[in-house]
Write the structure tokens for this entry.
Amino acid sequence: MSNSAGSTVIQWPESLYHTFHRKPGGGQESTHYCPGCGHGVLHKLIAEAMDDLGIRERTIFLSPVGCSVFGYYYFNCGNVQVAHGRAPAVGTGVKRALPHSIVISYQGDGDLAAIGTSNILHAANRGESITVFFVNNAIYGMTGGQMAPTTLEGQRTSTTPRGRVIEETGYPLRMSELLSTLHAPVYIERVALTDAKHIMAARRAVRKALKAQVDGKGFSMVEVLSPCPIGWKMEPSKAKEWVKEHLMPAFPLGVYKDVIAEREPRVRSAPELNVEGVEELFAAEPTVERTGEPTWEGIAERYREPQIKIAGFGGQGVLFLGSLLANVALRKNFHVTWLPAYGPESRGGTANCNVVISQDPVASPMVSKPTVLMALNGPSLERFEPHLLPGGVLVYNSTLISQPPSRKDVEVVAVPATAVADELGHTRVANLVMLGAFLGHTGMFTQAEVEVTMDQTLKQAAMMELNRQAVERGFGSVG
Amino acid sequence: MAVELVKGNDALLRGAVLAGCRTFYGYPITPSSEIAESAASVLPTLGGTFVQSECEVAAIQMVYGAASAGERVMTASSSPGISLKQEGISYLVGSELPAVIIDIMRGGPGLGNIAPAQGDYFQMVKGGGHGDYRLIVLAPNSPQEMCDLAMLAFELADRYRNPAVVLSDGFTGQMMEAVEFPPPVSELPEKEWAVRATAETAGNLINSIRLDPEELEEHVINLFAKYARIEAVEARWEEVQTEDAELVLVGYGFVSRLLKAALGRVRSRGLRVGMLRPITLWPFPSQRLRELADTAKGFLVAELSTGQMVEDVRLAVDGRRPVAFHGRYGGAVPSVDELVAAIEKAYPEEGRSA
């Protein structure tokens, strides 16, 4: 066998197995395809192109569900058998993992144009560098002659026994036309396996499509109108005529897109382990040094083991306030949890989070009966004030909340947080003023402890002085 | 000791990266989206791959492709998205492909809600896809375990050539807690069976079809021989004060944190209560539960579902002891008080007098 360019039709391509060892039972010299079927011809055209391009060893052939489900019996390369319609998605995974590979997605009309429509559309739209061979024979062959999305109007199949009715089942889908409207694909052509002339044109198209992938140009597809004598219940010679007389008018042959020459090759590299890169990347993450034993010594009994709810509107830095407080406690070796309100609850302009600080492991991060409420705006106060436990602490932003809290059974601390932040020139540090005020009032943690924690966990050094001032003003506001 | 305050979802992705995963395919869905967002941020900077797929079905098939090529690959989703992935999961098993699938469970059925739930136990542990198979299922109960079990999932998936699942919930995914990260894995296992687009692997085939019934039966027999090996050595669980326990609490994931708090409460009142927390939901720690049934007089299972894992506890205990159940569902979460009351109710009379 020769692998050289210009192989003749007599030569058996190396890219096809000589004996089909994976085919069970007898007959390992012949394919499982029916007489007159187009698959065998197309297999040969693809294999010859693989030989001539010298890509056999790096080709990965994806066999679909349909008549070509056993493509791996025949193709002498890496083989992956895939779920119905999903070859372009699987091919995406293969090609991204192995950019040097040549991925062939071989699909029928039910596979590509019905169950897998979204996958082919999106793979094409992403410009995945794979080559698709789309065999259109206007019928489901493997499952026994049911209607395909490409079945012609009036065509009888086992699920259109009176002929395909357009009003009921829609029009034959023209995938080449459809996909050629996308920007990303570089080459889309429709060919037919009828006579020698058309088969030669198909041969050229197959090569061109694969060559485009070899050159890293992007997504290419060849749609192949192919006879299905058994499915159509015709003699093989009649089936070829039927392709010409019926399929070709409905699915005109031709090049629908060819921008190979104008596209630059896209170079991707294979994913690497890059351990140093990982270490470097994560070294930049903020860590805190846990020190000492957690203790509430010197803290009033009622402030210990707090269950904290912090609420405001989006943009007030409520979640950050919670995480900074949690980090301060974590540094002191307390057990802490932080939980945001997430999903739709976090939309619509409100935000809240829950912080639990304890000497013992925390059971639930969810705070439904807070001992501390920090309310940064009116709606938050309204919503969470009723849930605050008697004897709890209510710190509120008195700049934005004109109506003081009504509860008489809790400690109320008014902090003009937004006004103080505005004085510092940055409304958004009102959250840190609130934090300072809360800690100053309860004595839970010191200003120095907050500053050390900010040094350890905050990335923006430029903001540090402003943050420090805001915390300081908060502590000062409760004297 | 330096620690980080990290969200469970972020800790999980970081664990995956530390385990050598450089490839993520997924579709956004609350409450798992942070995993995809972290992957989108981290993986490309490491030369890895992140693709936001057109749908969940495509995501799991991209995983199939990358796994075929020998990559350590993952996807993450939440309950309704996981339903869509089931076909692909079955194919992964059929083709014996390792991959890691994350399910951050939310309330169902249907679109349900985004609150934490545990209604996907059947779907993941019993197999939501078609055919005879098992998934390795790991159930973290903290951000630390989100990292640790994500790493373990990759290791087990590769070791056994089977998909492994990290089954978690909205709370564990969304909450921040202290995490200590281990060093990154510096070497990955060889996968001679993969298609690598090389001369050596050009004869390889990734395939789940076995047309001949005898051949498929043999394949399934081989799969289940492998599963027997996994069951023999890979079951993991945590035990709390079971030595003298009259009543053993059983709960996984988030619920186990609440059970532990309730346990502390009733212990201080003199009730001899212990807890077994399955860390692997499959293989299930059935053998250990059977042993505990020798000494304990009853079991109480709590879940964020109408009772799914409780069936496996009952199978393990095999009618020898009563197995009570306390469930909340639809995104509701039991309070510790509520669990204390359930424990009081389930506590065996004979134990009380002892």
In short: The two ends of chain A are 92 Å apart (CA to CA). Chain A has a mean pLDDT of 94. The longest helix of chain A spans residues 196-214.
